[in-house]
Amino acid sequence: MTNKYAVIVLAVGPFVEEEVILLVSGVEVACFASYCPEKIEVGESYKVEFEIVFSDNNFIAVAEKRAGSLIEVIDDGFSCFLYGYLDGSVFRSFVDFTDLDIHYGYPALNEQFVKVRVDRIDVAF
Q1: 124 close to 77: Cβ distance less than 8 angstroms
Q2: Contact partners, residue 106, CB within 8 Å, separation at least 6
Q3: SS3 readout for 16-51
Q4: What is the Cα–Cα distance from 105 to 121, expressed in whole angstroms?
Q5: Which stretches of the chain are assigned E, i.e. beta strand?
Q6: Cβ-defined contacts of 86-92 (< 8 Å, 24+)
Q7: pLDDT in tens, 96-113
Q8: For 13-63, how does the pLDDT look when each residue is reduced to its tens digit (9 = 90+)?
Q9: Rounded distance between C-alpha atoms, residue 52 and residue 29, angstroms
Q10: What angle do CA 10, 1, 117 make, to 5 degrees?
Q11: Are 113 and 83 within 8 A, CB to CB?
Q12: What is the mean pLDDT of residues 85-95?
């Protein structure tokens, strides 16, 4: 089951129209709008679903707890490091990402605070 989260659209990318900056649970996050059947408006609230798109060379490691954001942007694109708890099949970050199967590849990191490299965070409106 995929969770839906309430977000506010803060901005739409000026060059890549699928780029949206969202405010979710007090966190600003740049996402790729992979499914958007209608025009979205800046300042409006929506219910959305999030999905992580991993890079070919997965990176996951135990991390120090961070005082700031759970997202660290890597470059000007969509790539970033996400921080959160690996809780079985759920990665608990700024939202809960389910059915990722990270724990199968990295069982020793289960129930740990970790850092995961992702290519992008997809959002479906």
Answers
A1: no
A2: 60, 86, 114
A3: CCCEEEEEECCEEEEEEEEECCCCCCCCCEEEEEEE
A4: 20
A5: 5-12, 19-24, 27-35, 45-54, 60-62, 71-73, 80-87, 90-92, 96-97, 113-124
A6: 86/60, 86/110, 86/111, 86/112, 86/114, 87/111, 91/52, 91/116
A7: 998 777 878 888 999 999
A8: 888 878 999 999 899 999 999 999 888 999 999 999 999 998 777 788 898
A9: 12
A10: 55
A11: yes
A12: 91
Write the CB contacts of 71 (distance below 8 Å, at least 6 apart in sequence): 27, 29, 80, 81, 82, 83, 93, 94
Selected residue with higher pLDDT from 36 and 66: 36
User: Residue 78 corresponds to which tokens in the numbers above?
Assistant: 């969509």
Residue entry with tokens 């059915």 = 99
Q: Is the pLDDT of residue 67 over 80?
A: no
The amino acid sitting at 55 is S
| pLDDT(1) > 80 | no
- Tokens 């954001």, residue located: 69
